[in-house]
Amino acid sequence: MSESVAREAPGGGGAKAPSTRQVAAISLVGTTIEWYDFQIYGLAASLVFGGLFFPSFSPIAGTLLSFATFGVGFIARPFGSIIFGHLGDRLGRRRVLMVSLIMMGSATFLIGCLPTFHQINVWAPILLVLLRLLQGLGLGGEWGGAAVYAVESAPDHKRARYGGLPQMGSPLGLLVATILFTLIELMPQSAMESWGWRVPFWASAILVVIGIYLRRTLDDTPSFKKAREDHRLVRFPLGHVLKTYPKELLLTFGMFSATSGGFYMFVTFIPAYGKSALNVSPVVLSSGLFVFAIAEFLAVLVGTSLADRFGRRPPFIITGVFTILAAWPLYALVETGGTIAILVVLFVGGVVIGIMFGIPGALAPEQFPAEVRYSGSGLGYQVSAAIVGGLTPVVTTAAASAAHSTWPVAVFLGFFVLIGVIAVALCHETRSGGLRETAPSEAAASASRVPDVPAAGLAATDRGEL
Q1: Does residue 441 form part of some domain?
Q2: Residue 109's domain is classified under what CATH number?
Q3: Alpha carbon of 264 to those of 68, 78, 88, 318: distances in Å?
């Protein structure tokens, strides 16, 4: 992806698509910041929140309660995708991305300012939950817009690689968060618990300013502009998705189940279980997360390149089958508590999750036409994240504790990956040809579409007015 100047948009019409540098700015940088914000909460939940916000419980119970607040953010993510998806499909992609970025960053910064349970008693976890809800709303709106923006800006033969840009934000955000938490864990315990854990949350403000600066001059995609000019926008994108594209929505939910569950079985469960049940050194666990993030980042690059060359389905399905077969041996290695074993498991986890997470960055938006692409792809992913990802840390930690073993985690991983493999197998191959768009006959017949408006009305919409 070496293009550095504007090129003609896919689909013709003379419109100019954003340059590769602009696409990277809006897709990669923003999602890196958003995922950084989300990941530092997950790391803090597994390492320090139990004692700071739930000190009256046992270490295991405190960890479970902190993971419960972690799950609250997942519950909010579908609502974020509905709100921002509606605005993104009505007003354009880039405007709402600015709002989601500011919302996420503000909530993260304020978490770093929270008093602990010892200072304000029950108000501490209550405020923590409220700010976690805002985090979830912001991330729920961010991913759909970033992925759609990237895919709609891509040449047809590079859509998977462009769609992988927002997916790379996940390992990059995890990488930055892990580095900061590794440094903080070198502090004396008293300093880390009093103020050290707050530093990564405060640092989010700097990253948000950078993200806003990079996004300030970006234009909307030619695909959205053309949908608006052709009067293909709909009044209620969510209703249109549920009525017209229920199969595509279910397939999107399914393809992300593999990674919505699998990601947190590696990056959240293993550090928590390693610390509380296996007495693994925090430095080893942080190093493992570093290895996972690097492996996932590189795997997204490899997986999306393969998807552009051989199609979306083959690399995803092959990786998924391997993951199902390897699930039990991987978690049996975790059970040993050995340093090398844990590093190997997190490396393999980063590779398989990276490939399976990277490909839906394009495959999910490709399932929907432009007028509901933001809403459809975003909602399918975020519902999967809420149901599968949000419950995974709590359920797997409780199941492993009850069984005194990690075998239930391997069962959960294999089950969710199997759902993803089936969903991708049922998708039409989207490597060849242009993006899916609504046929003119369907556009004319749809009663839910926005009626024709004069040029002044279109200008108002372009300014961001409802």
Answers
A1: no
A2: 1.20.1250.20
A3: 13, 18, 28, 21
